[in-house]
Amino acid sequence: MIFKCKNCGGNAVYHPDKKKMWCPxxxxxxxxxxxxxxNMANCTNCGAPLEAVTEFTSALKCSHCGAYIxxxxxxxxxxxxxxxxxxxxxxxxxxxxxxxxxxxRILTPDSFLSYSTLECLEGSYVPFWLYDYRARVSYEGxxxxxxxxxxxxxxxxxxxxxxxxxxxxxxxxxxxxDASKRMADDIMDLMEPYEYKALQNxxxxxxxxxxxxxxxFSEAEEEERxxxxxxxxxxxxxxxxxxxxxxxxxxxxxxxxxxxxxxxxLMPVWVYRYQFRxxxxxxxxxxxxxxxxxxxxxDKRKAWIYSGTVAVMAGMIxxxxxxxxxxF
Length: 328
Ligand SMILES: [Zn+2]
Ligand SMILES: [Zn+2]
Fold this sequence. Notes:
The protein is an alpha+beta fold. The protein has helices at about 90-100, 115-120, 185-190, 220-240, 300-325, and strands spanning about 1-5, 15, 20, 30-35, 55-60, 70, 85, 120-150, 155-180, 200, 210-215, 245-275, 280-285, 290-295.
């Protein structure tokens, strides 16, 4: 499936700045029409074989004509996402963000921010499971409050004993867990937070112009990661209610979690793959907030030149001092 411009026949894409469908060929807005195709093996636009399709691909760029293809079978039925967070950061903005973040670093290799390498930046929708949970927390504990004060010639220590009892009902909404094998879990955890209020009901048009994947793991397979987070957050919320005591010993603590819903959502990420001296470095820019994850490689040659310059400068300064002192 592809979105084609009614005016010029070009491939219309979703534009994050304009928040509309846009034709990069004739600059028209909202002029797209959907052209469906059941064929997953060939490009809807030019017919070339789609070699990059994997078992999880749902949207990709045709390497032959550059059109963005959405695989119809992968966005229907059980594979259809419930929600999507449309890109808010355009490619131009993502490039600016990377330049700002890494441009000032003196040891960054020159090719890192060159036009030709930054052109390879790809917008990708990463599949996520978003879990809703209801937590029932019950807690019993023994606590003390100790007060020390003077009474005449005596120092008095007063210890008060308390029975601490708490019952909390907590509703968690949309705890995110990425469901992509390509994306490392720690990277996606660092990518957060996303502003989930901007989530939209899924529509194919938001995918045009980007890569996409179906979930690589089932809802049940990923649930444990969400449970761990819900448990940890429940404990933090519980601890916030037990304050002001000198000591507190828990006697009973129970956290019961019930999953109320799981949504399949697509989240926007700009991915920059940079090759330097035979090694690949990966950078990610959150497609909604612009948060950057990744460390630049250090060009050792530049480091040598730089330290060499410092040594020469230091030598020159030393020589100037000697001249001033009349040593030479
Ligand atoms: Zn057009
Ligand atoms: Zn094509």
